[in-house]
Structures are given as structure tokens and as C-alpha cells.
Design brief:
five-stranded mixed sheet; 2 helices; 10 strands
């Protein structure tokens, strides 16, 4: 009887997700204790900026990823980690530089953005700073307009 109860408890805490990762019932993602065989490709979902913030010159772009953990782990040695790890490269208005975001806070935050049309490109990259080759949507661009009525002082 005790074995049956214990097996039932384990089944409650670890379930198979639609993405193929063993995950907690809350949907928090892959277990760090289990290597994943034949991982499904990573996926990046990027939303348009929150409109209310644009009127203040603030750009909040929410995103989420699937089948990859956003963590500050870099280098060739991390390419074979399971569950797979990665981070974001964020490009603003075709400037020649970018910034890497390994935080996983799920929101890109820009303040003091001047009025006019802008774009942000978000790349989901592996620990070696390369877009995942098996990912069809790991580079997405969001375009938006900051209204002319924006104050130059930002409330951030």
C-alpha cells in the first residue's frame, strides 16, 4: 500500500508536458534532475510592447521561451547541457551593438526612448552566442512608435 501511495505522489509532482519536458504540475519547465533525450526545438515568443508604457517613452516587451532555460551560462562546454540553456541577444534600431540578457525576467525594459518609430530584434541564442540552428522562430523583430507627446524625462 505504501508503495502505491508513493508512486501516486511522484506522478502528481512530475508530469509530461506538451513540449516533451518532464515538468512540475505548475508548468515551470524541465526538471534540472533529468537529462532530456531528443529535446524538442527551442521556441521564442515575443509580444508587442505594452502600449500604455509607450506614452511615457518606456518600452516593455514581454517574451517567453519554450524548451530552453535562460541562464547566465556561456561557452562551448554548455552546448551539451540538458535541459538546454541559452540567453537573449537584443538589438535596438539597427545599432552596431547589442546586449545579452541571461536574466530570464521575461520583459525587455527600455526607458527614455525618443519619439518616433523604432524596432527591437530579439535573438534566442545558445551558450556560444549562436541562434539555435533547429529553431525556426528564434529571431523576432518588433516595431513600434513612441508618440510625439512623450516627455524627455522618464519616470524609471
Amino acid at each position: 500500500m505504501l508503495k502505491t501511495v508513493a508512486a501516486g505522489a511522484v506522478a502528481l509532482f512530475v508530469t509530461a508536458s506538451p513540449t516533451g519536458y518532464a515538468q512540475a504540475p505548475s508548468g515551470d519547465g524541465a526538471s534540472p534532475y533529468v537529462a532530456i533525450e531528443n529535446e524538442p526545438p527551442p521556441k521564442l515568443i515575443v509580444d508587442p510592447p505594452l502600449a500604455a508604457a509607450l506614452t511615457q517613452g518606456i518600452v516593455w516587451i514581454q517574451y517567453r521561451v519554450e524548451n530552453v532555460r535562460i541562464v547566465p551560462v556561456f561557452g562551448t562546454g554548455a552546448l551539451n547541457v540538458s535541459p538546454r540553456v541559452g540567453h537573449l541577444h537584443i538589438h535596438f534600431d539597427d545599432l552596431p551593438w547589442l546586449w545579452a540578457d541571461p536574466s530570464g525576467v521575461n520583459t525587455i525594459d527600455l526607458a527614455g526612448v525618443p519619439p518616433g518609430q523604432h524596432k527591437v530584434r530579439v535573438d534566442l541564442v545558445n551558450a556560444n552566442h549562436q541562434i539555435f540552428p533547429e529553431c525556426a522562430m528564434c529571431s523576432q523583430t518588433v516595431t513600434f512608435t513612441v508618440p510625439e507627446t512623450v516627455s524627455t524625462a522618464h519616470p524609471h
